[in-house]
Amino acid sequence: MVPNTIRIAHAVLYVTDLARSRHFYVELLGLNVLHETPGALYLRATEDREWTLKLELAPEAGVKHVAYRAGTDADLDALAALLDTQGLPSRWETDLDRPRLLRFQDPSGVPVAYYAESVKHPWLLQDYHLHRGAGLQRIDHINVMTPDVAGAMRWYMEHLSFRLSEYTEDDDGRIWAAWIQRRGSVHDLALTNGTGPRLHHLAYWMPDMQSIIRTCDILAGARMPEHIERGPGRHGVSNAFFLYIRDPDGHRIELYTSDYLTVDPDFEPIRWHLNDPRRQTLWGARTPRSWFEEASVLEAYAGGWVREHESELKGLPVHVI
User: Fold this and answer.
1) pTM
2) DSSP secondary-structure letter at 225?
């Protein structure tokens, strides 16, 4: 039995100042507090019927894990069996609204959790009187920086039935980035080349392009323009309108809208050349060096941080500031 992955579901980020993070994510970006416990906030966007981001107070910033939704408890058991067969350690955990989480480290070293059951809460999508800030609508994807994009891509596609939407390749046929999905959009998981594994970013879907531009105005009005790292602009990959911002601990968040569907069984993955200037930004704008070099550290299975490795693929695309 191949475990059925439904979609990307949540991320748990370690933050060093919960009040400062609350101001950024709740007051400015407009995420909604679903639960609050000593040392943690559970947040969701307006369309999310369950929490999609947990902020957990810690001495150092980092990533506890990223999580996917499975179809059923039987899928969780199938995944546990798969991990055991491959010699990948796993354990059962619980969290608020999630009674059964399967926690493991994927072969690339990324801390991952899977769950099937979650308490549902009424959505806020049409409670417009409660919307505030930038107006994030739903969790969309994660991007992981890894020194072995091709290997990570193969594992998720061969064992968890992820499907390839787009990829970046050089003249020698080496894959530098890949966008893979389960729910019929461009990606639930992006894999980009670099020192890692590290979390490059967590992305939320936005209602429209104007809401992304409004985010820039909100951060400027709050005298925090330095938190805008890249954009707004339109990606070549995914066709999405985007903005990258950094939270008070340096975690990168993408605000994202207007990509396309990939549900057809005969969908043909789109290839991009590494140095195509339209790949990163369709309009040809250059990308900050920080976007290629900086990312969030990941928690190891036994505690501490995952050991990072440099990629054999060296260098940056030509369109870099």
Assistant:
1) 0.97
2) G
